[in-house]
Amino acid sequence: MSVRVTVRAYNVRFGDCMLLSIDNGTAERHALIDFGNAPAGVKREGGRNDVFEPIARNIRTRTKGVIDLLVMSHEHLDHMEGFRDQRAVFDGMTVRQVWMPLMSRPGYYDEFTKARPQKAALIALAAFVERWKQANRFRLVPEPIQTVVANNNLFDLSNVERIDYLRSLAKTTRYFSRSRNTGSAQHGLGAGVKVDVLAPESDASVYYGRLPDHAFGLGERLSHAASTMHGRHRGGRALRRPPHMPADEFDRLKDEIAEIDMSSVFAIDKAANNTSLVLRITVGDKVLLFAGDAEEESWAQMVKRKAITPVDFLKIAHHGSINGMPFKGQGSVLDALVRTNKRTTALVSTCRGVYGESKDTEIPSHELLDALKQRCKRVVITEDTAAPGDYIDITL
Amino acid sequence: MAKTVSRRARASTRLKQLNYRARARIYLKDPLEAERNPRLYGNVVVSRDSLITTGPTSSRFIVIDYDPQTDRVERPARSKLVTAGTEKMLEFPYRRGSPQEAQVNAWATAIDTLDLFQQALALGREVPWAFEGSRLRILPHASCEPNAFYNRDTRALHFGYFYDAKGRIIKTSLSHDVIAHETAHAVLDGLRPFYLDAHEPDTGAFHEFIGDLAAMLSLFRDSRTVVEVAQGDNFGDLVSSLAPQVGAGLYGKADRNFLRSARNTLTYGEVRDVVEVHKRSQVLTGFAFDVFEAIYHLRLEERKRKAKGPLTRRDRVAALLVAARRNMVRLFVRPLDFLPPGSITFYEYVDVLLRLDERQYPNDPLGYRREIRRVARARGVLPPSSWKRPPEISNRDLLLRDINQIRSSRVGAYRFINANRPLLGIPEHVDFRVVALAKNLRESDDGVIPPPETFIQYVWDQYVDAAPAGMKDECLVLRPGGTLVVDDNVNVQFWTPQFYDEPRVTQVMGHVQRLLGVREVDTVPRRHTRSDRLVEALREQPSGALALRLNTSLMHRERGRS
Q1: C-alpha to C-alpha distance for B117 and B106, rounded to whole angstroms
Q2: B123, B158, B173 — which closes off a domain?
Q3: Which of A221, A250, A257 faces B145 most closely, judged by CB atoms?
Q4: For an interface test with A, which of B144, B174, B475, B512 has the most A Cβ atoms less than 10 Å from its Cβ?
Q5: pLDDT reading at A393 higher than 80
Q6: Cβ separation of B68 and A254 shorter than 8 Å?
Q7: Which residue of A has its CA nearest to B99?
């Protein structure tokens, strides 16, 4: 009996939302992978969440109210904001189980102490951002950094509530890494379906092992600053500006310093992306890869573990950014992932003009899209194929 | 009439301001050493910069005490006029431990470091900064981290502060060695702006070496330090152990009591594949320290021969002073003006050092060069026998020998270089440019003031395909070129050309490959934001090629302490 595999890709503007449906003739099972959009405030209406409601209703209709497997790839708003936002819809649905990366498990940082700096940096960064906001200076932060800060939801560290909500949706919540994958066989997608967890590695510090202090010095610095703000400067009133420097020159200097200080934000963002749960789902002779926002460090680990094999469906990582999936030169994984003779379908879940301020940094990268078009049977770009809030079905 | 008097009075006040020297109470090494030995904390006279005022501010430096993490601006140190002996002098009083202490300390030390380079024994000229602006900013409380750096964009030296295990504050702006090191980065950047390019591994390491060299040599500005060094049982511990307080704060005192040591045995061969610039630089720093030690012992031997009785402390002090002040500065700092502009390798530097010494002392009467060669050979930095020195340029073949035209502007110098393209090996069709033009007035070891030399630095762009290095079909820009030194009659005094032939390009690619391998380079250029990697890829316009540039804000961040 032939199995019908369909991926419904929703246009959430800038984010991921895919509904995988597997119909084996007798029953149809559904896996919902991510549901989010970039946060408010980014360019080109990227953060308008009016798409969530029609999509949530469509998911309910399509699944007849039963989701066999719900996957949150990582804790970024563009992958999870929609669930809690549409709790009115999801509360009325049956979710059999929820999967998350190991890093979302309570107590994770107690076990993996080496990964703590990432968390510390995030918390410290949140405090830093808050202070800047209070001083009404956040607008001075370069725009790409503002969006990174927003994407990590650092204005409002209530990700816990969002994740708790997801946990509350199902009786079973499982947390996976490549090596801790016990239970991945109980995916609930039916016999003949195999799910492999390719990433993340259990210890998230492997993704920033080379650059611990570049990336996370910020945490250390900010926590020192917070604890000593009133200590070091005891006595004497501070000035608004140095009396021996013109005000405009001083403002420029402050902006330039802010740029240097915020460089660590990129590393923090990258580290969060690399905690993405990367799943390879095999249904009969069809192989599908959902890569979340895995970036080059995560791909390097997957290559090292010899986990990269050709697939029939490939969800391009990180919305088609140039630094998401290595696709050129040495270390390219694209060639290893696509089947020869253009037999792979690629999905780029993205929205142009939201991130990246130059040809080099634009998302999606035109170079990556060109490379995909050369190598793949079909390249589906959500923005081009469906209106916001609408979807496209990809049948394999 | 009243107006005229007023103007005259103003001019007179300005003239006085111009001539005032300042007295500053500073740490000659750092607070830790001062605790051990109170003589290493005291007054110094700051005389090498002019128009000293609140901040402190002077002609070449300005202290801005802004802490971005607390968003606070501290009150600047204010000067008051005091009488010291017969001289009226400015003074910056402060309380110990106050922000003003760090302001004054960093400022006074930075001025002395700049003077180390500018003095007649070394370059014999004013060194420009690499940025558009005349004052280098000093931020004595720039961040709460064990880090200090020079940044061209902010035109500033950023000094961090942090807390040791016992919760005591350690300010890098109180460490002589850190201040001298960072100021030296700014000085070298002014002299050779392309040396922050990172396509060759030695160039970044050379920056680090010059920083450490400045920290070692500028210690000798004050006789108190010289006496302390001379008294020490272990020669030069105070000199070779860089930034002891910062090191102790970071590592504790159990196994390591300094940030970095010039006393090491590293050889060039051992660091050939090392990307990390500090580790690499230690070969040259160690080489310099070995030479210092060798010259000191030569001087001491000489004194021993001349002295009638056993060596006194005075003999040792004198030997040290001569070794450091004269020979080390001449040997190691003076070559900076003769180096090629685009990049530098250790061999190129050591070769220029030896060539200059040969030119000045062809017969090596004191045996210094013999010692330098011995030490350089042991360190592996002596150019190999296959090393080719640039061919001699015959003055007779030079065209447009008009020194006034050459000195008039960069365009004037360009005309001269352009006229002599074939002699200088500049390809016929490249659009080279003169990037610096300078004239010196220096003093030789024996006090003779030789005729001034004119330095012309020229470069052109050479593009190489970086695709084999995995840089996503990008093109890298390299800067071949040279430095030509002529005297007042346009006789060639020195020439250091630099070409990127195939073997050298292959070496560059190998290094880029290593940088990529350890993920120390950003392959996607960023705009408006800083990179979090040690090497940034900057896209040059209009060529679109990438220049690899060291990210100085991360160069000194302490690593491996997650």
Answers
A1: 17
A2: B173
A3: A221
A4: B144
A5: yes
A6: yes
A7: A233
Specify if B304 maps to a domain.
Answer: no
**Cβ–Cβ pairs < 8 A, chains A and B:** 170
One-letter amino acid identity for B237?
D
Number of domains in chain B: 2
Instruction: Determine the structural domain holding residue B486 and report its residue range.
Output: 395-561
B243 lies in some domain: no
Q: Chain A closest CA to B166's CA: distance in Å?
A: 14
Contacts of A241 in chain B (CB under 8 A): 73
CA separation for the pair A295, A204 (Å, rounded): 13
DSSP A381: E
Q: Which residues pair with A31 in a beta bridge?
A: A20, A69
Cβ–Cβ gap A213/B560 under 8 Å: yes
Mean per-residue pLDDT for A316-336?
81
Q: How far is CA A206 from the centre of its chain?
A: 18
User: Does some domain include residue B144?
Assistant: yes
Written as one string, the DSSP assignment of B120-161 is TTTT-SPPPPSSSSS-EEEEEEEESSS-EEEETTTTEEEEEE
Secondary-structure percent of chain B, ordered helix, strand, coil, rounded to 5: 45, 20, 35
Domain boundary among B128, B154, B173: B173
ipTM of the complex: 0.85
pLDDT tens digits, one per residue of A94-127: 999 999 999 999 888 888 877 766 666 666 566 6
CB half-sphere exposure, B404, CA atoms < 13 A: 0
For the whole model, what pTM was predicted? 0.75
- State the virtual CA torsion across A122, A123, A126, A132 in degrees, nearest 10: -110
Which residues in chain A are closer than 8 Å to B151, comparing Cβ atoms? 256, 260
Residue B383 in any domain: the answer is no
Say if CB B43 and CB B31 are below 8 A apart: no
Q: Give contacts of B168 with chain A, Cβ < 8 Å.
A: none
